[in-house]
Amino acid sequence: MRRTILSLLVLAFACAPSAPAPTTASRQEPRDASVPSPPDASAIADAEPDALPTDATPPDADPLAAIDDDPMSLHRDSRDALLALFDDPSRFASMDFAIGPVHINQGNKSVANHTIGKRTCLERLRDVVLQTPEQRERCGGAPNMVPIWDKGDASNAKFCIDVFEFPNQACELPLVWMSPVQASQMCKAQGKRLCEQREWNLSCRADPAGGADRVYAYGNDLDVKICNTNKSRVGRAQKCVLQTMNDLWNTCTTDTEPSGAFPQCKSRFGVFDQHGNVAEIMTRAHWDGFTYDQLKGSAFHYVDVQKKPTDPGGYWTRYPDHCNFEPLWHVERIETAAHVNYHLGFRCCKPIAHAGDAGTR
C-alpha cells in the first residue's frame, strides 16, 4: 500500500502541467499559504520508505506528517546506516565508512548540534522543483542534478552538477571526514567526477537567462542568515581543539543541517548550500599540467570569519565567501591529497554528452 501511495504521488506529478523552464524552477514564487499544495515528488521520494503513510493513514492525509522530525535522528552512527543512504550500497562497499576520525561519516554525533528535522526540511522544499524531467534527461538520468551554462545559452551546457552536497539527497546530512581521493572515488562510483573549480563558480554566480552575475549564490549582499553559516563557536562551552585528529573528533562539532533546509540558499540554477553547511572539495588545473584539489565555500561557522569582498586585508583569518573566491588552502595533487576535516564535504559533477562527441572527459 505504501508503494502504491508513493507511486500515485509520482504519477500525479508526472501528469501535471509541464514544469517551468530551469530559470523559473530555480526561483519559486511564494505560494498562497491558505491553499495547501502537494509535496514535490522528488523530495517525497527521498523520504525513508518506512516513514511514508501506513495502510491506516487516510488517503487525503499529508504524507509528511508521519516522518520523524527529530533533528538528531538524521545523524547516522554506524557503517550500515551510512551505506543505507544509497540506492545501491554495493557501489560504495569498499569505501571507508565508519564512525571516528579519518573515516567517512557525518561527524561525531555525541557533540553535534543539528536543529532542523527531516519533516521540517521536506516541508520547506514542498513547493521547490529540484529537477525537471528535461533536466534529468539532459544529465543522463542522474537524479538531483541540473545542467549549467554561461551567457544565457542553454544549448551550450557542458556539465551537470549535484543540487546538494554529497550524498546529494534532499533532507539528509552531508558527509564529512573524507579525503579528496575518497571523494573522487565516490563520484566515480556514480559515473561522475569531482567538480572543477570553474564549474562550481559558474553554478554559483551565473544567471540561466544570461543576466548579470551575482556575488553570492543568493544575491549580491552578504547575509549569514540565509544559509547555514550563522552557528558561531564564540562563547561556547565546547571548545574546538585542533591539535590531533582525536582532538578534532572529540571536540569539534559538525553542526550541519539537512541538505535543502535553507531553501533560499541556492543559486539561480537551483544548486543548494554553496555557502555554508560544509566546505567543499573540488579540483583545479595547474600550470604544471597536473590536477590539484581545491577547497571552496564555507561551513556552518562562517559567521565567525565572515568578510565582504571589498574589505581590506588577506584571507587567512577572515575571508570573503563569494562565488569567485579562490583560496589556496590545502592544495595537493589530487592522486595523493589526504586533507580531511570535520566540516569538509564535496559534491559531484558530470559532463554532458553532445551529438558527435567522441566521448566524455
Written account of the structure:
The chain is α+β, with helices and mostly antiparallel strands. It is built from nine helices and seven strands; from the N terminus they run ααααααββαβααββββ. Strands 1-2-7-3 form a four-stranded antiparallel beta sheet. A hairpin with a 5-residue loop joins strand 4 (279-285) and strand 5. The longest helix has 13 residues, at 2-14. It is globular, with a radius of gyration of 20 Å. The relative contact order is 0.15. Mean pLDDT is 86; it is low at 1-39 and 41-54.
Please give a quick description of this structure:
The chain has 361 residues and is of the alpha+beta class.
Tags for this entry?
8% strand; single chain; 18% helix; 3-stranded mixed β-sheet; 4-stranded antiparallel β-sheet; 361 residues; 9 helices; alpha+beta
